[in-house]
Specification:
879 residues, mainly beta, Maltoporin, Chain A, 22-stranded antiparallel barrel, 5-stranded mixed β-sheet, 42 strands, 44% strand
């Protein structure tokens, strides 16, 4: 392997510091690899990720770092890399959003209470491109889709829990996650995993593998792949609410259902309920994980040109698909209504869906990337790493089992469609980077290691137009579209259809001739030409970093970065980190840094109209760009960058078999990017300000404004302060390893949120997630048998729901979910594992405040898993 002579210098003792703080080691896939046994006195074996039984956190570091080996990753009973991180890193949280458009397939995560767009994700120390999905509510995060990285491709993972924007640039406000790819030139592994939930659903089957090949005697190609298939989960009951009940076993059956809708009979309605959800579950609206399947491939390669120069390249291809349900549409809910055709007859969607319908949402996600570079060392011992990368993520949407209500019965002379292609989202990134390191003698006790470099990046975000029927404003988007009436009097055309037997009555304001319904494929209207465009920008950044041992006990590092964005201007950020060795066993460490994050092109341009529940009832809610006509009409201001100040103070200690780290952190974010709470809109002239908002939409030219019940947009809405403590401890004795990781995290609003957040949203921002999360594990080897027990602790939290003019609150007690796995080595290369996640089938409390309507039993925004126990078996083979 490549031998970089500079590693022989005194900085070696601070490799973890440099790796975590500057990326100098992280930048080089060669150094990340384990060096071969060499007889050159200037080289040594370096394994940053540690070895079996070693502490999980790097104790000798100026900033907190979690290091996980391949063995650590394999020991987690998940195949999704997101879930693996959630299990191993207490400050990494993950939620499931069953009915949330694309978020059903690309789950939002947080690190230290910050959304994913404030955590930089690296693969082999190179920036990972973002997903095309912008979360449509709350933080509006747009981060990389970590699920596209198969666990079988990973040699290790490093999680830097500290702000690092000065080293890496925008996104590294909360920290950095670096995924290290396998670099084997021979051998490989294969794993078959299958399981299901205790309830008998959610069956999952996953096959993963890796194989390495030699490129002559100086290179390698490591290929990893994954094929997975997972069926849906339903933790639901039949839809029966005060406004509509379709539970045939309830005494409230048909309450709120408009039985006067054309084509309704009780018999046909009951029979149609079985098909309302097109066969996915026994309730009209299931809640749980969606159906998903994926094929993923990752390739990592490297080739030594000579002792000081190496080429490398890696990339991936991922194709996945998923489908999940939306909110159930019942007769009389504003979508299934009587409509008057041009010939005077009456039509309703019950002709297509006798029991109502639940739109089914499909997402096909294609993710590709390629990174290539050259690294090495000049004659003056300066190292370099020059690379280029391209990444693309595309989501193609399909909506089935629904209608465009405004089209009515016919579209272009044919029966109106029930399947639509609302459009595509595409995020692309192209980046060029150059990184250098050089030791310089400044007459100090030790040489100073300088790191410096530059980056140029182009980004684009494209909303691709959907099929015309998915966004077209049909005749029933307006009242009396065929001019059958003149006010309350029939026109000649109206009199003619009456003469042919029509029941038209223009004097009746409730006659179907006046009914106005929504525009676009119901549940997710397509992207129209007006909102189908490309948003792009470029950015340039340069940085310099200096670090050295001031004394044998005191290490100091400083960094400065300048970035310039074509859409948001320039900013300078900096960082200082230090470590003081009190004794050979105890270190104190601290850091202070500033950060800068410019809203992404996707966050600036995303548009969405979907069904949401701002007040507990389903309404069509539109998210529009801040600078769009709609946003401007409703008072939105131009977006600007977020800025942050990050401070940490901690200690690390190593006492024989016990290692421990304790780190306090404070992250202050100014002008935080967030979606404002839903602004109510009503076409009712008596609704006051809500009607004014409707008129603003009409003036802005929004088609189908009559059917939109709410609007929101992204803003730099408020300031926040997040404080917390991370505690990590590992105790090793003989064949047993005990680990404990605990995170306390509290986020508070630090400015006036009036005009941005509702009372409910403001309360939930500060209280709806557990402030304490812990992971405790014990692993013991009994010769061929290994037993792993893990306890996942979630502290107390409170959810709220503003209804009936009152903010109702529900307190959730702490809960502990246990995992158990038994792994038996059948031979040196073959092992069989079996176990259970959430062993005792623990669920959070059921909702009691009405925040979980429509057949939901549990509050689905809960960070505590509400799908119950899961058992599995896994066969592992290495060769």
């Amino acid at each position: 392997m490549l031998k970089l002579h500079t590693l022989s210098r005194s900085i070696r003792r601070n490799l973890p510091v440099i790796a975590a703080s500057t990326g100098l080691l992280l930048t080089s896939p060669t150094i990340l690899a384990q060096e071969e046994q060499a007889d050159d006195a200037n080289t040594e074996q370096i394994v940053i990720t540690g070895s079996r039984g070693a502490p999980r956190s790097v104790a000798d570091s100026a900033v907190p770092v979690d290091v996980f080996s391949e063995e650590d990753l394999v020991a987690v009973p998940f195949t999704d890399t997101n879930d693996i991180l959630k299990t191993l890193v207490p400050s990494y949280s993950l939620s499931r959003q069953p009915i949330s458009d694309g978020a059903s397939f690309i789950r939002p995560a947080t690190l230290r209470g910050m959304p994913t767009d404030k955590t930089l994700v690296l693969v082999n120390s190179k920036r990972r491109h973002r997903s095309a999905l912008v979360q449509i509510g709350g933080s509006g995060t747009q981060g990389p889709d970590i699920a596209t990285i198969p666990a079988s491709a990973l040699k290790g993972v490093e999680v830097l829990r500290d702000g690092a924007a000065a080293q890496y640039g925008s996104d590294a406000i909360a920290g950095v996650i670096n995924f290290q790819l396998k670099d084997n030139d021979e051998g490989g592994s294969m794993s078959i995993d299958m399981g299901q939930y205790y309830e008998g659903d959610g069956e999952q089957f996953t096959v993963t593998g890796n194989i390495g090949f030699a490129l002559g005697d100086k290179g390698f190609v490591s290929v990893s792949g994954e094929i997975s298939d997972q069926s849906a989960v339903s933790r639901s009951e039949q839809y029966c609410e005060s406004w509509a009940c379709v539970d045939v076993n309830s005494e409230d059956f048909l309450t709120g259902i408009d039985t006067s809708i054309e084509g309704f009979t009780e018999e046909s309605f009951i029979a149609g309920l079985a098909d309302a959800n097109i066969g996915f579950g026994d309730v009209v609206q299931p809640w749980g994980q969606p159906n998903t399947s994926a094929t993923r491939l990752f390739i990592n390669s490297g080739y030594e040109i000579n002792d000081t120069t190496r080429l490398y390249a890696f990339g991936n291809y991922s194709a996945s698909e998923g489908d999940g349900g939306f909110f159930y549409r019942y007769p009389g809910n504003g979508t299934i209504e009587n409509l008057r055709n041009e010939d005077g007859s009456i039509y309703s969607p019950l002709e297509k869906f006798p029991g109502g319908f639940t739109p089914r949402f499909f997402g096909d996600i294609t993710d590709i990337s390629i990174v290539a570079g050259i690294e090495g060392e000049f004659g003056n011992e300066m190292t370099y790493d020059i690379a280029a990368r391209y990444g693309s993520n595309e989501i193609s949407y399909t909506l089935k089992n629904t209608v465009n209500p405004s089209l009515g019965e016919f579209y272009e002379g044919e029966e109106s469609p029930t399947e639509f292609h609302p459009g595509d989202l595409i995020n692309e990134e192209l980046q060029l980077t150059a990184d250098f390191t050089q030791f310089v003698d400044l007459g100090m006790a030790n040489e100073v290691l300088f790191a410096f470099g530059a980056s140029y990046m182009e980004e684009s975000y494209e909303l691709v137009e959907g099929d015309v029927a998915s966004y077209f404003a049909g005749p029933h988007a307006t009242s009396d579209p065929y001019n059958l009436c003149d006010g309350s009097v029939e026109t000649d055309k109206g009199l003619a259809v009456i003469a042919d037997g029509s029941t038209l009555d223009c004097s009746n304001p409730d006659d179907p001739v006046f009914t106005v319904v929504g525009v676009g494929s119901n549940g997710f209207p397509g992207y129209s030409p007006e909102y189908s465009e490309t948003y792009d920008r470029d950015s340039f950044g340069v940085y310099v970093d200096a670090s050295t041992d001031i004394t044998d006990a005191f290490f100091l590092q400083t960094a400065l970065r300048y970035e310039d964005y074509s859409d948001f201007g320039s900013e300078i950020v900096g960082k200082v980190a230090a470590k003081l060795s009190i004794t050979d066993e105890i270190n104190l460490r601290s850091s202070f840094g500033t950060g800068f994050r410019a809203p992404t092109p996707g966050q600036q341009g995303t548009t969405n109209v979907s069904t949401r529940l701002p007040d507990g009832l389903p309404v069509a809610t539109g998210l529009f760009p801040a600078l769009s006509d709609v946003g401007q009409a409703l008072g939105a201001e131009a977006l600007k960058p977020e800025t942050s100040v990050n401070f940490s103070l901690g200690m690390s200690g190593s006492f024989d078999a016990l290692t421990t780290t304790v780190d306090f952190y404070r992250i202050a974010v100014a002008d935080r990017f967030y979606a404002v709470s839903t602004i109510d809109v009503s076409s009712d002239p008596d609704s006051g300000e809500d009607y004014d908002k409707y008129l603003a939409l009409v003036a802005a030219g929004v088609e189908g404004a009559e059917s939109i019940g709410g609007v929101n947009y992204f803003q730099n809405a408020f300031d926040t302060v997040t404080t917390g403590v991370d505690i990590v401890a590992t105790y090793t004795m003989d064949d047993t390893v005990l680990t404990a990781s605990v995170n306390y995290n509290k986020s508070e609003l630090d400015s006036d949120v009036e005009g941005f957040l509702s009372t409910e949203d403001a309360f939930d921002f500060e209280n709806s997630t557990p402030k304490v999360k812990g992971v405790f594990s014990a692993k013991h080897d009994f010769d061929a048998l290994t037993v792993l027990v893990r306890a996942n602790l979630y502290g107390s939290y409170t959810n709220s729901n503003f209804t009936g003019g009152e903010l109702k609150k529900q307190d959730y007690d702490p809960s502990v979910l246990f995992d158990l796995e038994l792994n038996y080595a059948l031979s040196d290369s073959l092992s069989l594992a079996a176990g259970a996640r959430n062993l005792f089938d623990t669920y959070p409390d059921e909702d009691t405040i009405g925040d979980a309507c429509c057949g939901r039993i549990y509050w689905s925004g809960n960070n505590v898993d509400w799908q119950g126990g899961y058992y599995y078996a896994r066969l592992n083979y290495t060769f």
